[in-house]
Write a structure and sequence with these properties.
Elements: H1 12-15, H2 40-55, H3 64-73, E1 78-80, H4 90-94, H5 103-128, H6 139-168, H7 176-179, E2 181-185, H8 192-196, E3 199-202, H9 203-220, H10 241-255, H11 258-270, E4 297-301, E5 342-344, H12 346-352, H13 363-367, H14 369-374, E6 375-378, E7 403-406, E8 420-424, H15 425-438, H16 442-456, H17 468-471, H18 480-491, H19 497-503, H20 532-536
Length: 540
């Protein structure tokens, strides 16, 4: 066991103060919390538990991958295969029935507030001791570990609340963003009355907390792990200052504070030295089941430690492979998911230039390393049981047209322990590209877009003539649509699409849904209600 990150052991004292018997009773206090941290090493456990509720469990119980499936399932990139089903609210999500309560959103809600509750307990302890709970600790240990732990706590609270707003709240720009009191705000733990009867506040007020927490985190977190100074567990999948800046850039972009977002993006891209780069193929961000990471990965959810179960199986709903696939899951190791229900829409594949009007594969697709490596095309079912199931649709015999599937999850040598990138450098470049473009800096926008396109371009595909002019854009040729499409190619099935459209105040297309119209911005009502039992306890 080489990292404390995914161990919740030692923090069970808090679970005596939080009832976990029901999703919606997680703030029912049965005993006052006790604080057994006797030194900074023990306090390290306080930073660990929020990661568990954010990332770690096999089927739900966390919110990271669950939110990716829910949020992308609402968008135009997703096609629901007719006749497919799973133990999941497939139809409610696909049909955008956000007026109903769904269990998967409730699970994410519960996990997020459990994380927040644990964080609040630890912060109460720290600030209740005048920020000096361990007076016997060395100055070096306080600087490099205690303050870093507190920075992680503030960061993870911001991360949980941010996910709550994406899932349960109106987008910035919607009048209800400033008026509707939707989420309970909990910022301490030791006041039982406040924990049970939290004040419900506007989404705008939640974002004030998120911004404050992220700025505190940036001040307190180091830029990375330093051997001999930091607790050894800190090198494994934990937040550092660049991670906090990346999430802050997401928040600011969503809020329309683009100049402030640009400041964070410039630091990540231009001032991080050789920490991150786009010098590897796209698959390198997804094919690790060990402590290593792809060069573009800014933050990863770490699953290779198999004592905590496997990589989030929620992803099987919209990815090609079974979570138990090995060695990439193709060829002699072929192992397709039996739960997946969502492929890419053919209308989006046509927008990418990866399908022509007759749904044939194109040269542009064959030249794109993302298409080659993190997507998988299946031809339609031909009624031949001897057809190769890696080439022709055999699972859904009613699917006669070709479909492109997401194929970025479970791609490591041991697929069920594949680490998953949470933030990648390509996203940072593409966000900066669209901000620069909208600010009138078309040269900068083109430079950033070309960085991503260059990494994705394969000039050595046999039988395809290479035209460099197709790879690069210029100030004269770049358009906002080019940036939008590049982002979809890069970040589809990573929970990005709806967030991006809302940040740009753009309409949500229907995709290939029949009888469902485009939803104009601000996507009124396109968010999930919080659990009814939580609403029943509200006082305001």
């Amino acid at each position: 066991m080489n990292n404390i990150l995914i161990k919740i052991t030692g923090f069970l004292f808090l679970m005596t103060g939080i009832s976990a018997c029901d999703h919606d009773d997680f703030f029912e206090l049965t005993n006052p919390p006790e604080f057994p941290w006797l030194n900074i090493t023990e306090f390290e456990r306080a930073a660990v538990s929020p990661y568990n509720y954010s990332f770690y469990s096999d089927w739900g119980g966390h919110f990271f991958m669950g939110d990716r499936v829910i949020m992308d399932g609402l968008t135009d990139i997703i096609y629901h295969i007719p006749g497919s089903s799973a133990n999941y609210p497939v139809n409610e999500v696909y049909n955008r029935q956000t007026n109903v309560e769904i269990q998967r959103a409730n699970v994410s809600f519960a996990a997020g507030y459990r994380s927040i509750g644990l964080i609040n307990a630890a912060l109460d302890f720290y600030y209740g001791e005048d920020e000096n709970p361990f007076p016997q600790a060395s100055a070096a240990d306080i600087q490099h570990n205690l303050k870093r732990i507190v920075g992680e706590l503030h960061f993870m609270r911001a991360y949980a609340y941010f996910h709550h707003t994406l899932r349960h709240c109106p987008a910035p720009g919607d009048p209800e963003f400033e008026t509707e009191k939707i989420l309970p705000l909990r910022l301490d733990f030791t006041d039982a009355e406040a924990a049970l009867n939290a004040e419900f506040v506007t989404t705008s007020a939640i974002y004030d907390v998120i911004l404050e927490d992220l700025n505190i985190a940036i001040d307190m977190l180091p830029e990375g792990f330093i051997d001999g100074l930091h607790h050894p567990s800190y090198q494994y999948g934990r937040a550092n200052r660049f991670v906090a800046r990346a999430i802050l850039s997401r928040v600011l972009f969503r809020l329309g504070k683009w100049d402030e977002a640009l400041q964070q993006l410039n630091i990540i891209i231009d001032e991080s030295g050789d920490r991150f780069s786009l010098d590897q193929d796209p698959i390198e961000a997804f094919n690790r089941s060990d402590a290593s990471k792809g060069n573009e990965v800014i933050w990863k959810a770490l699953y290779y430690d198999n004592e905590m179960g496997h990589s989030p199986a929620d992803a099987t709903l919209f990815t090609f492979l079974d979570y138990r696939a090995i060695n990439g899951g193709h060829g002699e190791y072929f192992r397709r998911s039996t739960w997946h229900t969502y492929s890419m829409t053919n209308s989006v594949a046509k927008q990418f230039g990866w399908m022509d009007e007759e749904l044939n594969e194109t040269d542009a697709a064959r030249r794109d390393k993302r298409y080659q490596q993190i997507y998988h095309r299946l031809e339609g079912n031909r009624g031949n049981l001897l057809d190769d199931p890696g080439v022709y649709e055999q699972q859904y015999t009613n699917v006669k047209e070709p479909r492109i599937w997401n194929d970025r999850y479970f791609r490591a040598p041991d697929g069920q322990y594949s680490n998953v990138p949470v933030v990648r450098l390509a996203e940072m470049y593409l966000t900066r590209s669209i901000i620069r473009y909208e600010n009138g800096n078309h040269q900068g926008a083109a430079d950033d877009l070309n960085m991503v396109r260059r990494r994705a371009w394969d000039a050595d595909v046999a039988g395809i003539e290479y035209d460099a002019s197709e790879e690069f854009v210029t100030t004269a040729t770049i358009t906002s649509d080019m940036i939008h499409l590049e982002r979809m190619k890069e970040l589809s099935f990573e929970g990005d699409r709806l967030y991006y459209l809302q940040a740009l105040r753009l309409p949500l297309p229907p995709g290939d849904r029949e009888g469902i119209a485009e939803i104009p911005f601000p996507h009124t009502g396109l968010y999930w209600p919080i659990p009814q039992r939580e609403q029943d306890f509200r006082l305001n």
